[in-house]
Design goal:
By secondary structure, the protein is mainly alpha-helical. The chain contains four helices and two strands; from the N terminus they run αααββα.
Length: 82
């Protein structure tokens, strides 16, 4: 996993937490990212596609734009603070 992918995975976890565990869009994930990925859903989507291939994120059922972190993805991150 690259540093960019780890940042995006952490932002996905945080964005999902803010939305009560619901699937979130690339725009919502990009808003939770630090610079230079903040506000760049195009870059976030590129990372999400690669993370999906690795089985750590998935496209939410019934959605083409909603993303969720998997249990395997959660294990790759340090525990969330706060």
């Amino acid at each position: 996993m690259t540093a960019k992918q780890r940042v995006v995975l952490g932002a996905l976890r945080d964005a999902q937490h803010e939305h009560d565990g619901e699937a979130v869009s690339a725009y919502q994930i990009a808003a939770a990212c630090p610079a230079p990925w903040q506000g760049r859903p195009d870059l976030v989507t590129q990372a999400l596609v690669l993370l999906e291939r690795d089985g750590v994120v998935l496209v939410a059922a019934g959605s083409t734009r909603g993303w969720k972190i998997t249990a395997a993805g959660r294990l790759m991150l340090a525990p969330r603070r706060g």
